[in-house]
Amino acid sequence: MFKKLGAFFKEPPIAEPIQDSEKVDSMYKHWRLRMFYSCFIGYTIFYLCKKNIAVALPGIMDEFHYSATELGLLGSSLYLTYGIGKFVNGVLADGSDVRKFFPTALLMTAIANILFALAPSAIGVLGLSPKMFAVVLLWTLAFLWGVSGWFQSAGFPAVAKSLTYWYSNSERGTKWAAWSCSHQTGTFLSFIIAGYIAAHFGWRAAFLVPGILAAVTALWLFERLRDRPQSLGLPDVEVYRNEPVKQQSAEDKKEEDEMSYVQIFKKYVLCNKTLWLLAIAYVFVYIIRFGAEDWMIMYLKNAKGIGLEKATGMIASLPLVGICGTMCAGVISDKMFKGKRAPVNLIYLVGVIIAIIALKFNTITNLNYVIIGLLGAFTYGPQMMIGGLCAVESSSKKVASAASGFTGTFGYVGAFLSATGTGFLVDKLGKNGVQNWDGAIYFWLASGIICLIICSILAIDEYKKDAKKVKEQA
Questions:
Q1: pLDDT, tens digit, 9 for 90 and up, residues 48-60
Q2: pLDDT of amino acid 256
Q3: pLDDT in tens, 407-459
Q4: The CATH number of the domain where 224 resides is what?
């Protein structure tokens, strides 16, 4: 069975090279655009099947009378499987056919969402007592949401492989940033679509409709996607664009071509100092990102005394302005810094720190819209680059998915720490049962400073390597 699955998903062989330069140019233009919009739409649909849980939780709580702690089990199950799955699926994606791997992951996510909606009815026919029914249902939902998280985690590594193979270094920052906006687009659409559906048709429909949409999209993606350019007879993208591979000599390339996947994985992932530093930095990026996404409404409400409706409106500026920050990060690193990512990371992290401090001391209510928006812009830039773009560019194309999955796993360690650490510090710094939300600010601020220090080390290391390279060429 496993051999058959391996054969089905196996990366297609390199096709006979096309010699006609005009045909190569025409095919590259066609397929680059097609791969990009397919990956963007596909990943947006993944988020429709991920963020719908947020609008469904109140309905689930009202119907089955679960506590907030019990419902927290659902989110924890996804974080756990998603974090582990990013690395495991990253390794699998490197040797798999993107055309089959990505749509299959979305199809399985769709099935998990549909089963999530049908679970109460299915368990209801067992005739369990109300108490036993509630327990069995809760763990069933947690299991299904964890399964959904596992297959969702396979989406990003497949996209990372596609963007790495179809776009060269000098343009990859812009393209990666544009694709990364699918996160915010999917989050925004999920709140709008799932929210409307849940309000009018119940929480089950908020899983059924996205699930059906994801299944249809998966079939469409199978028709749209392809694997590497070489599988179509096209040359490497660097050859097509007449652009040398960054920081890799002919000897290094020849050595890499003669290495097995395990050897490449060991050299460019497990023993890659730069990748480890990026992964550790990514922990702190995710502490800030999920801290803002998950706790900001409570911070505004309890620390600033802002009403729930207005606080919800303020948090909406986080992903919307975040799209601008993401795009600017990619464009600036490509155009202004000629493909160097480290300077942009440093600029953005300074912005994150300033935004957090401004949030703490701001006393003008409406100014929070601007501050939270800027926090989103400055956070989503490093979130896109450190764990994604920088990770794949610090390794090898042949382990691009594994590298991004490796840092992604560390990111979800940060997500877990954000969920537990923020709440712990808010309670710990409080007195007489009164929460102290300065704990959240201190936690996010410390994370920003630590991340800035790590990225400064990486920037200095990159500067030394460039200086050494220039000296050798002189």
A1: 998 888 778 778 8
A2: 63
A3: 888 988 888 788 778 777 877 787 766 778 888 899 999 999 999 999 999 88
A4: 1.20.1250.20
Task: Give residue 231's identity as a one-letter amino acid code.
Answer: S
Q: How far apart are CA 148 and CA 45, in angstroms?
A: 13
| Same domain, yes or no: 384 and 270 | yes
Question: In the structure encoding, which two tokens stand for residue 41, read together?
Answer: 């739409």
pTM, 2 dp? 0.77
> How many Å apart are CA 273 and CA 267, to the nearest integer?
10
Q: Which of 216, 242, 268 is the last residue of a domain?
A: 242
Query: How large a percentage of the chain has pLDDT more than 90?
Result: 39
- Alpha helices by DSSP H, 153-272: 155-166, 169-201, 205-224, 237-240, 250-257, 261-265
218 and 263 together in one domain: no
Contacts of 169 (CB under 8 A, 6+ apart): 238, 243, 245, 246, 339, 393
Number of structural domains the chain divides into: 2
Choose the final residue of a domain: 199, 220, 242: 242
DSSP string, 187-209: HHHHHHHHHHHHHHH-TTHHHHH
Domain of residue 368 covers: 249-474
Q: Is 161 or 184 the better-scoring residue by pLDDT?
A: 161
Is 275 among the domain residues?
A: yes
Closest CA to 179 of 162, 154, 193: 162
With contact defined as beta carbons under 8 Å apart, do 105 and 215 qualify? no
Helices assigned H by DSSP within 125-154: 130-152
